[in-house]
Amino acid sequence: MSAAPIVPPTRVLAVASHVVSGYVGNKVAVFVLQSLGCDAAALNTVQFSNHTGYRHWTGTKATAQEISDLYRGLKDNYINDFDMMLSGYIPGAEGVLAVGEIAKELKETNKEQPGNFFWVLDPVMGDNGNLYVAADVVPAYKSLLSYADLIIPNQFEAELLSEVKITDMDSLAAAIQAFHEKHRVPHVIITSVSISSPDIPEGHLCVVGSTMTSAGRPRLFKTVFPSIDCYFCGTGDMFGALVTVRMREAAAEAAEGAATAGDVHVTSRASWLSDDAVAAVDLPLARATEKVLASMHEVLTHTKDAMQGVVDRTLAAMTEEERRGDKQKMLAGKKAAELQLVRNLDCLRAPQKTIEVRPF
Amino acid sequence: MSAAPIVPPTRVLAVASHVVSGYVGNKVAVFVLQSLGCDAAALNTVQFSNHTGYRHWTGTKATAQEISDLYRGLKDNYINDFDMMLSGYIPGAEGVLAVGEIAKELKETNKEQPGNFFWVLDPVMGDNGNLYVAADVVPAYKSLLSYADLIIPNQFEAELLSEVKITDMDSLAAAIQAFHEKHRVPHVIITSVSISSPDIPEGHLCVVGSTMTSAGRPRLFKTVFPSIDCYFCGTGDMFGALVTVRMREAAAEAAEGAATAGDVHVTSRASWLSDDAVAAVDLPLARATEKVLASMHEVLTHTKDAMQGVVDRTLAAMTEEERRGDKQKMLAGKKAAELQLVRNLDCLRAPQKTIEVRPF
């Protein structure tokens, strides 16, 4: 009957888009963070009526100056004491750089205790070969990689940032190695891998992650699981928010184990880097990935199961003429594909599904 | 172990302010609505770094046009199918009227099934004799009262809107009667009553509510409970969000009872008005008020208990010079008084405290 917090007290600055209706960006992230017990500060980079997948929307974007001003307001009031930051969609390169300045400042503030601040960077730029931001956003993100603790690009974004074309498991590993070695990114998860490989059967998805060793070498793990045959918006944002909380949880658990053994806490180290002796599949990042994917699988399954009902009810509420329109049918489908988060709190907090990572 | 939704599927349009850090306005309402199972559409009327109680803040306000545009975006995409609306702080009279237009349109859309849309109006204007909005906001709210289903003013706001000076229990009843008879507001709760009365012992608070009969006569109930001696921001917003969900829950329960007895569902009636035979203390509004106040008592108690710790940690993170400053001490206090919502999910969902309403 208890709905106790899942993590120790954690203040997270969540920087992403806001939509009035539906679930993408901070509308996903803030609820996920909060319902697992994090104190989420929500800096909204846009306020749109709905996500852009509906093709038509209204609303406004925050300028880079407005983003910086909001952070300054927090700082002036001594309420910028964040344990973590999760950044998602930011409109334009100047905005990306403004968010980067926030991360740099929080890193600098915590330089004596570098484990006290952890940045999860979701470099939202595009998917499946399509860039949906301005071209200058790519170098902006590239310039910030070395300040991130964990990056969670999809395959396309990983290619843009690593400059490694991902065509098979070897090039995938090479891209992750580039993040570790060239950009000194400690933790990497490639959230959606679509390559043809004997390891990935038809209709399956692959997620690959790695935490570097002290020498900057990758420790790769992967998991392959049946995909849900449906296009949902906001899945990347759900991944980001869940991994933020679950990484905190897994690192805190590892720290507790270390305390019992008289070792150094993983959370007192910069970027919560595990001992070199820890194998890939035993990393806090691996534990976090398993729980994140289990929650996502359950939420997406419930969403898919409810879709036809939402379409039927939406069309039933229209006039007969509207109901025949292709646009109206498309819109009913978009509404039905909105993530069913709030009525599936159990899936977020305590997923029953088991997903296990394996060595790469 | 279950975190099942508390209400039937309910889509709520929540119109209020947004703060990046802390808990007032939609930052309270959206989490409360969501964690009890409502699909909350969040239309943010401002984005500020923090609430204005800190005295300094940064951010931007939405114009009346921007509010209207956001709603138009929802309508164009057939995602304005709201069961309820909760409106809180809106900057300026034009904005208030823009939100009123949204309510009027949703009322009109549902005129064949008037129980399908319910507006909870929190007329945020001031407190304890101080108006903290422009003077023309008062007539703007007054012009909208007849479209509201439930209004939740504090004593000062009730006086402004009813034009009845509240000095004792009789004038309090007269103010509520004015809302029912003159403005045809079906449900009223005065959320904080501070009058000297033998019914309200020193250090206690009084909340009074009423659902009118079909003849527009009040059915008054009250509850008196020990106050928590501390000033918190966002309590009105927490009340509004909780009462939105609990009113829906109580009306659905009453409807279920009616279905068993072969009677008309309360939720199929305009404004969910109970039969005239239902006594004041048996109203769905009374049931809702009890649960709302129980949750609030628990959250405020936990917040107060944690305050000194937050102050100590905030001051400890400052330089020695800062720590001596009066402004810094004030700011640490403001931070410590932020509602502790996210780590007290149980208090919101399943309060243990019992609060009972009595006949007025």
Question: Which secondary structure elements does this structure contain, and how are they paired or packed?
Answer:
Two copies of one chain form a homodimer.
Chain A: E1 11-19, H1 25-35, E2 39-48, E3 59-61, H2 64-76, E4 84-87, H3 93-109, E5 118-121, E6 126-127, E7 130-131, H4 137-144, E8 150-151, H5 155-162, H6 169-181, E9 187-193, E10 204-211, E11 220-226, H7 235-261, H8 284-316, H9 320-323, H10 326-336, H11 345-349, E12 358-359
Parallel strand pairs in A: 1-2, 1-4, 4-5, 5-8, 8-9
Antiparallel strand pairs in A: 2-3, 6-7, 9-10, 10-11, 11-12
Q: How would you name the oligomeric state of the polypeptide chains in this document?
A: homodimer
Total DSSP E strands of chain A: 12
* Overall pLDDT confidence of chain A: 95
Distance between the termini of chain A: 39 Å
Strand order of the largest sheet of chain A: 3-2-1-4-5-8-9-10-11-12
Radius of gyration of chain A: 20 Å
Q: Report the major sheet of chain A.
A: 10 strands, mixed
Task: Name the chain pair with the biggest interface and residue counts per chain.
Answer: A-B, 62 and 62 residues
Shape of chain A: globular
Q: H/E series of chain A, N to C?
A: EHEEHEHEEEHEHHEEEHHHHHE
List the uncertain runs of chain A: none
Helix- and strand-based class of chain A?
Answer: alpha/beta
Provide the helix percentage of chain A.
Answer: 40-55%
- Label the CATH architecture of chain A: 3-Layer(aba) Sandwich
Strand content range of chain A: 15-25%
Can you identify the CATH superfamily of chain A? Ribokinase
Discrete helix count of chain A: 11
Number of domains of chain A: 1
GO molecular function (chains A, B): ATP binding; pyridoxal kinase activity
Domain Pyridoxamine kinase/Phosphomethylpyrimidine kinase (chains A, B): 95-247
Keywords (chains A, B): ATP-binding, Kinase, Nucleotide-binding, Transferase
GO cellular component, one term (chains A, B): cytosol
